[in-house]
Amino acid sequence: MFSPPPINNGIEVSGEYSLPIVILSIIIASLASFTAISMNERIQKNSFFHRNFWLVLASLAMGFGIWSMHFVGMSALSLPFMMHYDSLLTCLSIIPSVIASFLAFYIVNQKKRSITTYLLSGIFMGIGISTMHYTGMASMVMDAYYVYNPWIFITSIITAILVSFVALYIFSRQQRYAKNNYIKALTSAIMGLAVPSMHYIGMAGTSFYLPKQQVMTAGHHMNITLLITGVTIGITLLLGLLQLSSLVDRYVDFRVSHIDILTKLPNRRSFEKALNDEDVYRSIAVWNLHNLEKVNNDHGYHFGDEVIQYAANALHQLNIPLSELYRIDGNRLALLLQGKDRLNELQHAMKNISAKWNHPVIIQEKKILLQGVCAISTINDQQSQKRLFSDILAVLSSPGIQYKNEVIRFDPLIHTYSFEQEILNTIDQAMKNDDLFLVYQPKVNAGTHKIVGLEALIRWNHTEHGFLSPGVFIPILEQSHRISDVTNWVINKVCNQIKVWEEQNLPTYRIAINIPGEYVTSPRLLRTLKKALNRYSVNPSLVELEITETTVMESAESSMRAINTFREAGFSVALDDFGTGISSLSNLRQMPISTLKIDKSFVDEVPQSEKDSSILEAIIALGHSLNLNIVIEGVETKNQVDFLTSTSSLLSLQGYYFAKPMEPDEVMEWIKARNNE
Questions:
Q1: Where does a domain end: 227, 256, 285?
Q2: Which residues pair with 325 in a beta bridge?
């Protein structure tokens, strides 16, 4: 292996490299590195698939890239003798590179990293590259034999380890400091050099000998078939993994998050998003199927599913232009219509369905009578699109409904009071029975992606109406001056939750609580806060009070005094929905707040809109100049994250890109999973 043959027994021969193929081998290694980095982004991201899924794909991509680079590099060398590869050893040689890549990426993706961590991962990667190379060399079957220079042999391994160490360090750190394709490409090129550098240094220390008696053939060894096959498979697999991982993850995430599994219709989340988008929908019809529980009891849940699918298909087959059908609850289907003056068209279509369902329908050769009610509402140009669903709930809560497939149009003189009164009558019971509950949405640092806090958000699983959006019941509670009671309940729930987590030795973070406008200046609020802190032994630094900009602007002087009092008591205070209240810069400068929370509307069109991007950058710069913590809410896409991170790594980001609002046990599992990364 290291000893040359006696001078009389062999003649040393040399070959020549094809520069284009050498360059191609480096490109393949860099492409593999680019793929691995892209997979690593999925590991860091909150994804539908487990992080180990992306870790395996990254390891396969890198391992196969190392393997492909070696054999393409060998094909670039033209030697004066015949040679082919042992199939078994050639196949086995890929294993060390895949295993080494897995170990290296696994180590470098741990939460706690140090120089020792990077060095250990570099050693694994370097040894894997070297093992793959020398196993590949051993797979060569030829008339000649080869000898390694021991010093260059050692140098090649050390080089592989050192370059891998540097590459993996950049590989990890670039996630924090540089999330753009240019830096990713540069990092891939550096990582790609780890493999070719070891290969070509190792080859420089390899001497080939032919038996003296053997006649030297013409220059050979450009195995075109192997080269084309290796390059084709390698590039196809690498690009395929990259595209497949992205498409599959996004597709599955979309299906799970936005599509109802049973009916394949958009779900409630899609429905609420549609209502929060621009005012494109002017009319709505919601069918509430009343007798599903009886159907399930009499015929089984599978048959009940068939009933839901039948109803969904019947509504879908109406083919009403410019409409979208949703399944918004277990027994509710909603139809949204675009365009003005379409109420008569919608009523006519719903009455046709009603007439059909007034007679028994046949499902799985069984006759069944569907019992339900259809609520219809429309809005004019002066009314908010968000009113559509609250009007529907007002109809469905009306005590006069008999569920005989009536089609009922919303009438404010009849239905508004009924629904609002039901909300007010049931809110106390909802708090007592935990029908009203809290979910927590994490905030993460833009630069490190570490968790820096949580926001407590109210949810209501109403006994009659199912899950109610806060946008439906919060305005009713505010108008009736009951919101302060609910806020007190939230404060106590949050403090109790902090105590529970502390007793379980779980990590605790600052939790933001939304304080309604009318309650900010009330002495009762401070008394409630202090009482809750004492009762649950909670440090005030773990509670942040979010106050809307509009609230401060409506009563600037008294709000300033209240905020000062909160800060003196040890609470953090955030100005919520900044940019919507048209506050003056002088007022912002005087506000004793600690955090500026930028409204989602400033993020929606970023970075596609140059104007919106410039405005957002200006707001962020303003906040930094005032030494404020800045939270960006409503972050939902990777492009938004990349733009915000490039603007400032000190931002806190909150939104569905990282995590949805979760119940306490879910959020702790999510945090635990991220901390183990």
A1: 256
A2: 335
